[in-house]
């Protein structure tokens, strides 16, 4: 069964993806339960449907890849929040830079060390390296690491869900005095999901999380070719 | 209805504009063999225009905010590729979850502690320079 032979099925998959996403957003707006968070609910439901219907991935992605294509323009859209928050960077340049550097180094370093410790095959290990930054950046960086875009997208989602579920607990355990640290922690470790959580804590936390997430993504894309050479 | 349309049209136009800018920066990056990918090149160009004041952020705000708000929709499709990797996850799934879980805890704890320290140092330094400047002015 190939995609060209099933143009209507491929189109239906694109529409289904949008419908499941819209449904997840609607559900989460009504019931703020973790299981309804679109980041968790939408992929799980969609994978369930695709598996149950026995649709092969090439057919599914034939038209749905146009959604994925939108990640390109989304990369540029990050210019607006960075510009809005330039005063925060100007006031605390060293703190923001420290958060970005620590986040990138620990994100890539911990994935690399743990993947080795757990003897994961290279394809998985390479796809894990960029998992802690936002998807548009992670999917660009994974090309440099020689990982798979699909696996990286999955690991980014799992990281986000994990960060969303454990963030508050970690905040309660760590003796943090500044709002900056709470925001940077959430943005660096679990990108968009962490930033959403940080916005719930307060405005400053949200801004710092968003900045740390975006700048860490850019920094990772820039250093990925160098890191790939070292880590092999 | 017309109010919704008034919001929808500029958003759509700005999203198309961002898409066109992305196509251009991606094509440029390919053409010059840039080591920096097109997306980040375009982001840097756009940010420079905004910071120089040559472009008003309001001209792209709606489109950019829409793209960022709906970003999840754009990366669900590659996640569905898990259906292709079922055998892999059956053998490596638990170890993968352990790597992601432990790794994320490392990033959280490490980043938070580093930023907490550096922030206190930076604030102290800022206060010190402010006091010195104040003294220089008053004496």
From TrEMBL, chain A:
Keyword Transmembrane helix: yes
Stretches that traverse the bilayer: 6-28, 35-60, 66-82, 94-115, 153-174, 207-231
Entry membrane topology: Multi-pass membrane protein
Localization annotation: Membrane
Keywords: Hydrolase, Membrane, Transmembrane, Transmembrane helix
InterPro entries, alphabetized: CidB/LrgB
GO MF terms, alphabetically ordered: hydrolase activity
The protein's name: Murein hydrolase effector protein LrgB
Source organism (scientific name): Chitiniphilus shinanonensis
One Pfam family it belongs to: LrgB
Superkingdom classification of source: Bacteria
Main location per the UniProt record: membrane
PANTHER family the record matches: INNER MEMBRANE PROTEIN, PUTATIVE SEROTONIN TRANSPORTER
UniProtKB/TrEMBL annotation, chain B:
One GO MF term attached to the UniProt entry: hydrolase activity
Record Pfam families: LrgA
Transmembrane stretches, start-end: 39-55, 67-88, 94-115
Name of the protein in its database record: Murein hydrolase exporter
Keywords for this protein: Cell membrane, Hydrolase, Membrane, Transmembrane, Transmembrane helix
Organism annotation: Chitiniphilus shinanonensis
Cited PANTHER family: HOLIN-LIKE PROTEIN CIDA, HOLIN-LIKE PROTEIN CIDA-RELATED
UniProt topology in membrane: Multi-pass membrane protein
The keyword Zinc appears for this protein: no
Superkingdom, taxonomy of origin: Bacteria
Cellular localization per UniProt: Cell membrane
């Amino acid at each position: 069964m190939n995609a060209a032979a099933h143009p209507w099925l491929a189109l239906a998959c694109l529409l289904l993806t949008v419908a499941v996403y819209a449904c997840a957003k609607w559900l989460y707006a009504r019931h703020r339960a973790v299981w309804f968070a679109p980041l968790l609910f939408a992929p799980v439901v969609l994978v369930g449907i695709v598996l149950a219907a026995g649709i092969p991935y090439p057919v599914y992605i034939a038209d749905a890849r146009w959604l994925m294509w939108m990640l390109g323009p989304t990369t540029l859209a990050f210019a607006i929040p960075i510009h809005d928050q330039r005063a925060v960077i100007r006031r605390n340049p060293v703190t923001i830079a420290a958060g970005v550097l620590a986040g990138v180094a620990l994100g890539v370093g911990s994935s690399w060390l743990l993947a080795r410790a757990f003897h994961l095959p290279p394809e998985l290990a390479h796809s894990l390296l960029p998992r802690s930054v936002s998807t548009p950046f992670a999917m660009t960086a994974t090309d440099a690491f020689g990982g798979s875009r699909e696996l990286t997208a999955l690991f980014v989602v799992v990281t986000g869900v994990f960060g969303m579920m454990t963030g508050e607990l970690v905040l309660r355990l760590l003796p943090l005095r500044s709002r900056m640290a709470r925001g940077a922690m959430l943005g660096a470790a679990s990108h968009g999901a962490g930033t959403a959580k940080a916005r719930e804590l307060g405005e400053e936390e949200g801004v710092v999380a968003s900045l740390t997430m975006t700048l860490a993504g850019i920094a990772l894309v820039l250093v990925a070719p160098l890191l790939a050479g070292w880590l092999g | 209805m017309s109010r919704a349309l008034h919001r929808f049209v500029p958003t759509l136009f700005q999203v198309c504009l961002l898409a066109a800018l992305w196509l251009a920066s991606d094509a440029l990056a390919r053409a010059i063999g840039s080591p920096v990918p097109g997306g980040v090149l375009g982001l840097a160009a756009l940010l420079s225009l905004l910071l120089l004041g040559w472009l008003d952020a309001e001209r792209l705000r709606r489109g950019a905010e829409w793209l960022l708000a709906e970003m999840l929709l754009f990366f669900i499709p590659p996640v569905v590729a898990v259906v292709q990797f079922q055998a892999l996850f059956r053998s490596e799934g638990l170890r993968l979850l352990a790597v992601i879980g432990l790794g994320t805890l490392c990033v959280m704890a490490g980043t938070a502690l580093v930023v907490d320290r550096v922030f206190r140092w930076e604030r102290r330094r800022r206060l010190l320079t402010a006091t010195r400047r104040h003294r220089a002015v008053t004496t």
